[in-house]
Amino acid sequence: MLFHRLSHPSLVRPAGRLRPLSAALLVLLGLPAAQAATILVDSDADGSVADRCTLRDAVAAANTDAAISGCPAGSGADTIRFAPGVSSITLTAADGGSLLVTSALDLDGQDRLVTVRREADDTTFRIIETLETAPLVLRWMKISGGRLDEKDMDRGGAGVLARADLTVDRSEISSNLTNKLQGYGAGVLAHAGLELVDSVVSGNATTGASSPGGGIYSYQPLSLTRSIVAGNATLGTASPGGGIATRLVDAVAIQSAIVDNWTSGDNSFGGGFHVPVATITLTDSTVSGNSTEGGAAWGGGGYAYVMRASGSTLSGNSTLGYASYAGGVMTVAADVSNSTISGNATLGEQSAGGGLVVLLDSSIRNTTVFGNRAGQSIGGGLLVFAADPSVVVRLDSSLVFGNEAAADAEVGLFDPTGEIGSVRITGSHNLIGAASNTAVFPADTLRCDPLLLPLATNGGATMTHRLGDGSCAIDAGVNPDGLVSDQRGGAYARTSGAATDIGAIERQPADEETIFCDGFESD
Q: What confidence category does residue 510 fall into, taking pLDDT thresholds of 50, 70 and 90?
């Protein structure tokens, strides 16, 4: 299980404390240093129980800095922990419904998941709501079963509605639902900073129209580290971002996975993520198995204004509806390095760009684009949908091969102005498969079969394609960024042998006997 696998003592953070200088200043001023309280929940009941401390009373004690029932008084930024016998708490409308947090709070399950959920057949309500004055940390917590219907006035956040900073650490937010118009962010609706570390957001959904962010909707910058966003969905029209949606802000994913999310409504872009006017940065991450099913729903894997990807794999994503471009990712501009774009597809009529679609100047370096499909149109691997006829796309040491389309299978160019000849492909040391009717490639472009092996776990955090024995891509590339490692990172050198290999990963010495970090040999 993810949480046990990530529970090494080195990942357990010490409790916060005043810095020495801050404490010294308080002493000099004659002011007492505030001492946060730790409140122990010893009952799994909701509401109040005589001489016992329930979660609802513990939150109230933390909010008011007053003793309530069997819970001691809070004091400033408090921590709520749970007795060993308390592992699951079911909230009911009769006892107050949502937990409202009004001051800084840390809910800490202490190395075991403590579940907080809504009674399944109860009146609809969200699980947790915070005010602007109340930054919240969820540590070793599972938030599940929240539901909002039309009568619920606030826009969304059936699991958590956070108006102050929210940190989700080794926790799970799952199976929450908004069933209403503009029901943003079924799992989490964040109005302030949102950080997920070693956590899972899964199985959440929005069903109403104009309800973006099945798993997460964020108004402020979003950060994922070693986290999974999986199996979330938006089902209404104009509801982008099955997994993640942001408004006007950036998203960062490091060693994370955005997988098996989807949108089903028309005009619902970005099955995995939707970052429409900002930048998504993917580092050592996977975007896989996401899809859009409605018409004019672009970006099966994701849709972003700018996508920066390094050490990452975009695979098995798809668009299924009419005029739905980009099975993998659609972005205005892309900066891709040391990455793999594989097995993505556009399957609907009048839909183009199987792997990656870009609109403006972009750069792709040391990257493999393989096995993507745009069956009924153009640009199976890469489509330059040029919003400006002077667009330049630079490819360096990249492998674009084995992609399928009705025309221009590897790289397609589409210029709505009709001046297609002015869209340029520049760069050097690339390997391109089938010839293009529209694109002209640099003179040193190789035309040969790189003998790629299937997408597999070849070491590192993401799946990749290894080069087969005798591949023409071996020692035929360059390393324009001076990369130390290939896509797999660590000890996998970016240049091994006479020169850099073309594509995302390097053929290593004695490659057949490579020992991975899990201790097993490669097949």
A: low
